[in-house]
Write a structure and sequence with these properties.
Shape: flat
Low-confidence stretches: none
CATH architecture of the largest domain: 3-Layer(aba) Sandwich
CATH class of the largest domain: Alpha Beta
Radius of gyration: 21 Å
Mean pLDDT: 86
Strand content: 15-25%
Number of strands: 12
């Protein structure tokens, strides 16, 4: 039994999915499955029931999870005590991000960063794009994830995300592999107002008619439900469409539109620079960033 196995078990209990747990602990899904199986074999009892609809912790598994959470908490306290003993001053960086930011990206950056810079603690703050801009300007957060925010010079790229058209399986476009954007601009779209505003700006810059908004909806679970009920369709980053949405159809757009997400900051302290440099390198290494530097 090791710490990695305990982290995997807690992540599965928290997310209810081996795939989502893999994002949380920054491992592949097969590595998560192997780690869980090895732990169960060592303990001689099943801790998690796997099924088509996810993963459910067994009764004994719930008890083990509580002890695992306690053990991981003790490890974190040991780490903090040793940092204090070494005289390293803890630096907190408040990171603003939208709720649908890929968990694997946030967890991967923050966990790996702590090994390189143990004095830096990342505090995530979730908000809408407009809230993040306001918080950044007011100094409530130090760094924010934003889409092509040209007004700030201190910024680095962390995500290149293709936009996809998402429709229900019964929609007339469901069998299409690719659609011309000019052929769908008169469809009725559902999505976050601030994000569609940015997408429409990108279309206008290409001399393409902007999308028509039917409903402004900020939460993606609601957007997915409305698409299933054929209330409307949506355009969203590929990273938001995962295995839980197999009943929805993702279609390529022509011309292709790539959403560029950046870390931006109004400050330029050594610790913030370290975070931004490391995040850019981590994102590129792990496939989130494909554009040429």
């Amino acid at each position: 039994m090791n710490l990695s196995q305990l982290e995997v078990l807690v992540a599965i209990a928290t997310t209810g999915s081996l795939k989502e747990a893999s994002y949380a602990v920054n491992l592949t899904q097969s590595a998560v499955s192997y780690s869980l199986s090895k732990l169960e074999n060592e303990l001689g009892i099943q801790l998690v029931e796997r099924g088509r609809n996810g993963a459910t912790v067994t009764d004994i598994g719930e008890k083990v999870v509580k002890y695992a959470q306690s053990a991981l908490g003790d490890i974190e306290r040991i780490r903090q005590v040793t940092i204090d003993a070494r005289g390293i001053q803890s630096i907190k960086i408040r990171l603003g991000c939208v709720p649908h930011t890929p968990a694997r990206l946030i967890n991967g950056i923050t966990q790996d960063l702590r090994y390189q810079y143990p004095q830096i603690e990342i505090l995530p703050f979730e908000g809408t794009p407009n809230e993040l801009i306001s918080w950044l300007n007011k100094g409530l957060i130090d760094v924010a994830m934003m889409t092509d925010h040209d007004a700030v010079t201190n910024r680095v790229a962390i995500i290149d995300d293709d936009l996809k058209l998402v429709v229900s399986s019964d929609h007339s476009l469901a069998n299409e592999h690719e659609v011309e954007i000019h052929n769908i601009v008169d469809e009725l779209f559902i999505g976050p107002e601030s994000e569609f505003k940015r997408i429409n700006q990108m279309l206008i810059a290409r001399d393409i008619k902007p999308f028509k908004m039917l409903h402004h909806v900020n939460t993606y679970p609601t957007i997915f439900s409305m698409i299933r009920e054929q209330v409307g369709i949506s355009v969203m980053p590929q990273s938001l469409i995962n295995s839980q949405h197999n009943d929805l159809i993702s279609i390529n757009l022509n011309p292709k539109i790539v959403l560029h997400v950046e870390l931006v900051s109004l400050a330029n302290t050594p610790h913030i620079s370290a975070l931004m440099t490391y995040a850019n390198r981590w994102a590129r290494t792990h496939g989130f960033l494909t554009s040429v530097m």
